[in-house]
UniProtKB/TrEMBL annotation:
It comes from the Eukaryota. One of its GO terms (biological process) is DNA integration. Transmembrane segments: none annotated. SUPFAM superfamilies: Ribonuclease H-like. Residues 80-167 form the Integrase catalytic domain. This is Integrase catalytic domain-containing protein.
Amino acid sequence: MANLNLFRRKQFTPIETVRLYIKNIVNTSNQLNGYKWVHLKCIRQVFTVTQETIRHLLLEVDPEGVVFTSKKRLRRRVYSNPGPNYLWHTDVYDKLTPYGISISGCIDGFSRYIVWLHAASSCSNPNIIAGFYVYTVEMLSGCPQTLRFDAGSENTIIQHLQTFLHQNNPSEKPWVLILKSTENQRIEAWWGILRKHQSQFWINLFQKLKEDGHFTGSWLDKNLIRFVFLDIIKTELEEIKTEWNSHKIRGEKGNLNLFRRKQFTPIETVRLYVH
């Protein structure tokens, strides 16, 4: 039959039925699948359809997904934030905690402006985090619409402070968002930048002290680390904060049109948005 260019007659599934099915599955985790896998799913649904038809339908229904799949890239959630001071992300960086030094940071989700970045002997004390928050609110003469943090006990006081400052500001939006630390997208991403440009040096140094037998994790050893290095790290963090807040950033899809033609510093972003 093949030599004669003959084949069995097939009753193909109506194209609209297949298109509707594909529209439904691309809204789920199946959007990560290529056209061959989607074709297999169609076969399991007792559809009679060719791989080529599935490929064209995917291009039509989900062109962005096809691009990501062909490049073997993950489709990540798009971060959206309407403006400065709408949402602050705060968290504690604990990579130096085993050596007696903790770092607390807070970043504005829209402009990526570092609101505060401080090192302390411990950031598990809620009074310390509250001090950072109050000092920042006083310096900026304002607080965010929403403050995002994890459920750690160190955040209990700032939760009450944020709520108190909004008691005369009724809004449908929540004043605090309590989520897992790993879901605190903006600040978690920035911790990676901090490690690349500063903290990895200190991690290596303290690890070397430990390997050489000069650090055992005792109360005395941690306090010696703080006595010698804490002020140095504080100074470095202030420098990094200043440098970061003055560097050029690229705009993101969904944010203001003013980003489309030019790069701005986080500080300029806030000024342009306000004015």
